[in-house]
Design a protein that fits this description.
Blueprint lengths: L7 H16 L8 H13 L4 E6 L3 E7 L7 E7 L26 H18 L5 E7 L9 H7 L2 H4 L2 E10 L7 E2 L3 E4 L1 E10 L3 E2 L9 H19 L6 E9 L6 E2 L2 E10 L3 H20 L3 E8 L4 E3 L1 H15 L4 E2 L12 H6 L2 E7 L18 H15 L3
Parallel strand pairs: 3-4, 3-5, 5-16, 6-15
Antiparallel strand pairs: 1-2, 2-4, 6-16, 7-14, 8-12, 8-13, 9-11, 10-12
The structure holds nickel (II) ion (NI).
Length: 389
């Protein structure tokens, strides 16, 4: 059993790593310097099975336990930053203009490195730990997590269970939150092109005005959630883009609508795809127009499996005590690309308090270094729980 005090020395070291990574952020699939940094650290811990270049810049490293044979479990951290100009004014602010670690992936990487150092020196577990450092959690499909799964990491490294962690502002440092089942929503994106007939704005009767039709479609889509979805289910349909003519006196021949769909119930993705098309098409055709429709499935629902969720809860409680682990948190509607790993293998994703900081993806956000020993301690506790002799 560990308390967070066991990880104070590692906290000092991990703080330096974290601040170095924060000052040197890299965008998706370009994490070359970050990957080099991670690889050098892993090698310096005496870890000799390290595979690099998976999904461009991804890394998997193996630590063999010294307490006998057993399964391999995967621990995952993400390494990419965001295209945001930093305004945190910290001494370790981004040196790369327009790029910053605004989601705390610098902290996630530093915590997994800290756990790697500890586990490589103690090896007090059976079986094997696969450290997964993934690129490109943030971008549009195909993301780094998806590509690492596509490139076969689960089979190649015989990973039987997989675990993820993310910091969250607004929860106290030293506290954890998790739930069984869906914990984050899916993300699908759609495009609708309303095809009418353009003309002079002074003679609308000679046109089929796609602007007015698009307006009706946008309102129509709002009724799919309010009138056609079981109110006990979670579904979001947001229209976020609208593009029509560029002039006051032109009725365009087409209008482009785009938006996003989020849900915690996988079955509602089929429903949304079917009903958005039916609604848009029905409205357009009623006015003599038609639509082109594209629906792109991106990140699936992040779904925590029961057995692994219980392991995660036990591991966190052993570190910080029962009252600091909320095991019944309400799921969020954001999307997290760790979901692809949870589709490939059973596992669990847990949230770690980042304290009262700016929100994720805000230009003043910074990962809280005081949270580092909690994240490191969680990974160690998880390994020594899941792979106990
Ligand atoms: Ni993130």
């Amino acid at each position: 059993m560990h308390t967070v005090e066991n990880f104070r020395d590692l906290q000092r070291e991990a703080t330096n790593w974290r601040r170095y990574l924060h000052a040197n952020p890299e965008l998706d699939f370009q994490e070359h310097n970050t990957a080099r940094f991670v690889t050098e650290k892993l090698a310096s811990f005496g870890i000799n099975h390290i595979e690099t270049g998976i999904a461009e810049t991804g890394i998997v490293a193996l630590i063999q336990g010294e307490r006998g044979d057993g399964p391999t479990i995967g621990l995952r951290a993400d390494m990419d930053a965001l295209p945001i100009a930093e305004a945190s004014n910290k001494p370790w602010s981004s040196k790369n203009p327009g790029i910053m670690h605004a989601c705390g992936h610098d902290g996630h990487t530093a915590m997994l490195l800290g756990a790697a150092k500890y586990l490589a020196s103690t090896r007090n577990f059976k079986g094997c730990v696969a450290l997964i450092f993934q690129p490109a959690e943030e971008p549009e499909f195909p993301t780094g997590g998806f590509r690492m799964v596509q490139e076969g990491i689960m089979d190649r490294f015989a990973i039987s269970q997989v675990f993820g962690m993310h910091n969250v502002p607004g929860i106290e440092v030293g506290k954890f939150a998790i739930c069984d089942g869906p914990i984050d929503g899916s993300q699908d994106d759609f495009d609708i092109v309303v095809k009418g007939r353009g003309g002079h704005a002074s003679s609308p009767h000679r046109t089929i005005d796609p602007v007015v039709i698009a307006a009706q479609i946008i309102l129509g889509l709002q009724t799919l959630v309010s009138r056609k979805t079981d109110p006990r289910e979670s579904l979001v349909i947001s229209v976020t883009k609208l593009k029509a003519a560029q002039a006051y006196n032109v009725i365009p021949d087409h209008v482009e609508i785009a938006g996003t769909v989020r849900t915690l119930a996988s079955g509602l993705r089929d429903f949304a795809e079917r009903e958005i098309l039916a609604c848009a098409q029905g409205i357009a055709r009623g006015f003599g127009a038609d639509v082109e429709f594209r629906y792109v499935r991106s990140v699936p629902v992040t779904f925590n499996h029961t057995e692994e969720t219980n392991l995660a809860i036990t591991a966190a409680r052993r570190l910080v005590g029962s009252s600091s682990v909320n095991d019944k948190m309400r799921p969020g509607m954001g999307a997290e690309d760790f979901a692809y790993m949870l589709e490939a293998r059973p596992g669990a994703y847990i949230l770690l308090g980042n304290g009262p900081t700016a929100a994720l993806h805000n230009n003043e956000y910074d990962f809280t270094d005081e949270a580092l020993p909690y994240g490191i301690g969680y990974w160690v506790s998880l390994v020594e729980t899941a792979l106990a002799v």
